Amino acid sequence: MSKASFPFDHLVVIHYHWRPGGVRRVVELTLPAIAEAAGSSLKRVTMLSGGNESERPEFGTLGIPADFIHEPACDYFSNQEDTPQTISEKIRHALWRAVGETGSSRTLIWFQNPALARNAMLCREVAKLSRETGAALILHHHDFWCAGRWARWDELERCGCPDLSRAAEALFASGTRCVHAGINLQDFHTLKRFFPASAFHLPNPVVRPPQSSHAQIDAAKAWAATELKTEGPLWIYPTRFLRRKNLLEAILLARWLRPEAILATTSGHYSQDEANYRHDLTQAAAQRNWNVHFGLLDKPGAPQVADLLQIAEAVVHTSVQEGFGMTFVETAASGTPLIARAIPAVMPDLSAMGFEFPQLYNDIHIAPGLFDVTAEVQRQARLADSTRTRLPMHFQNIFPSLAADARGPFFFSRLTRTAQLEVLSHSATESWKICKVLNPCLEKIRHTRLAQTPWPNQVPHTPLRYAEEFLKIASSIPDNPLDLPVAAGNAQMELTTSALSADSIYPIQLER
User: Fold this and answer.
1) Helix, strand or coil for residue 196?
2) What gap in Å lies between CA 323 and CA 325, rounded to an integer?
3) How far is CA 299 from CA 129, 285, 296, in A?
4) What angle do CA 387, 412, 184 make, to 5 degrees?
5) pLDDT for residue 323
6) 233, 299, 345, 353: least surrounded by Cβ within 10 Å?
7) Which of 35, 75, 68, 32 is CA-nearest to residue 51?
8) What is the pLDDT of residue 303?
9) What is the pLDDT of residue 208?
């Protein structure tokens, strides 16, 4: 593309952290292609984040200067210890360092996941900087705070967003030169209704990297043997301690389908608001002698996730919610069989790219004799009440009951953590014997040789294609700010109302 078609010479990439996986992986795959597609127009790149200073995207040489700015105040608000005023001041200083004192309309800010609301002060300061300097924004929405993350509302209020309209103004950067990019079709169609001229579909790139070398495979095997200190088939869940990842379901699957397998997660890192989840899982695993290992790759010198996937017998993915589902793609690329929940929000995009996954299931049915149904109904009612009271009044009135029917059916993913642990307190042999007739899909997986995911014949969404779409989006950014507070408020209202449907609520995401 010519310089005229990409009217920016400085790209600033902002995210809360650069922990492995997720957004970081997208940036690693696409930034080199974006720099190449932009050609001589792009003069420099600046990466700004909080998190751990030692964690940085690995994208090689871009051919232009690339600076890294680390400011802990840009990390999740739940990880902050300073006052809101101090946090805002630190963010403002870091942003001006990132754009430079001559920040102008020639600067493009690529802001990852602002409407996840992990730090609304960062969102507000980015929007303020854009208004002051004329810098353009691509707001890249991977997820939204209201999608099962109702604890974020407390943080939004503490960050100076006392109502939904004020939150929408900050999270959607009203009054700036901004456009919105959604990574799946569902989110894109929602955004397009409210921002018809400035909403785009930008799904994650799909690549099939070369298989790891014999030396890398040998090193990964040696690492796993040293860390696990036990023998058995290795099953991997590429995740850290996130409630939406539904980790206890992965443990149940492994115990039912391959009792001798060791289930390992790649990371044990977690944010402070996941501390209780981590504590309960690690304590239960130790007390009940589960064959699990959390954080297999946490220590320095660990192999790459891609190497680990290739030495595993299977990859498990039990998340209740994803924006795109990179684990599906990366496992397909590894050649290792995948056992996964079919996530409604992401399957249409993956199917459109030509992926077909042999070992998908929709939910795990649990017999009522494996947990105290009466106590669980009461527990979910209390959880719904406590969550409801923390929300704005409009949403209190439409927040659904979580357990209106004590007769079932019961799905493991829709139980509280307490009930899930109660199910897992039974021996795998006993619980499987009771539940196998309810789960014919899992019965088939258990008795059929696990199959690899075929790689699509058609060319998927490559980094090059991603870069071309990115440049088109950047070139569409208006010259003047768009003040669309009503559209922003309506978009936030639609997203929030949709997230309050009964099908979208999972107790494990509401629990602290």
Assistant:
1) coil
2) 6
3) 38, 20, 8
4) 70
5) 82
6) 299
7) 75
8) 93
9) 83
Q: Which residue do the tokens 């994650």 mark? A: 204
- Strands ordered across the beta sheet of 10-15: 66-70, 44-49, 10-15, 107-112, 136-141, 177-182, 199-201
Exposed/middle/buried for residue 429 (C-beta within 10 Å: 0-12, 13-18, 19+)? exposed
Helix (H, G, I), strand (E, B) or coil at 250: helix
- Given the structure tokens 């310089």, which residue do they identify? 3
Both tokens of 106, joined, read 């020639």
Q: What is the DSSP letter of 45?
A: E
Number of helices and strands in the chain (H, E): 20, 13
Is-contact 211 231, C-beta < 8 A? no
Spatial separation of the C-alpha atoms in residues 361 and 402, rounded to whole Å = 22
CA 229/CA 469 separation, integer angstroms: 47
User: Could you tell me if residue 481 is left (phi over 0), alpha (psi between -120 and 50 degrees) or otherwise beta?
Assistant: beta
- Hunting for tokens 């989840």 — which residue is that? 277
pLDDT at 404: 54
DSSP, res 50:
-
CA dist., res. 182 & res. 170, Å (int): 17
How much is the CA Rg of the chain, to the nearest whole Å? 23
Q: What is the DSSP string of 268-282?
A: ----GGGHHHHHHHH
Q: Are 139 and 89 in contact (CB under 8 A)?
A: no
Cα–Cα distance list, 336 to 157, 231, 243, 325 (Å): 44, 19, 25, 16
Amino acid identity, residue 79?
N
Residue 183 gets which letter from DSSP? S
Q: How many CB atoms lie within 10 A of CB 397?
A: 10
CA-to-CA distance for 66 and 62, rounded, in angstroms? 8
- Tokens read off for 58: 């690995």
The stretches in the chain having pLDDT less than 50 are 1-4
> What DSSP line would sit under 360-371, residue for residue?
EES--B--GGGS
State the number of CA atoms in the 13 A half-sphere of 211 facing the CB.
8
Work out whether the CA dihedral 94, 97, 101, 104 comes out positive or negative. negative
Beta-bridge partners for 199? 180
**Does residue 409 have a cis bond before it (omega within 30 degrees)?**
yes
124 touches 84 (CB < 8 A): no
Q: Specify whether the backbone of 21 is left (phi greater than 0), alpha (psi in -120 to 50) or beta.
A: left
Per-residue pLDDT tens over the stretch 373-429: 999 999 998 998 888 888 878 788 888 877 556 677 899 999 999 999 999 999 999
Angle at 323 between CA 457 and CA 490, to 5 degrees: 130
* DSSP tag of 482: B
For residues 18 and 146, the answer to whether their CB atoms sit within 8 Å is no
**pTM across the whole model:** 0.84
Q: Are the beta carbons of 122 and 171 closer than 8 angstroms?
A: no
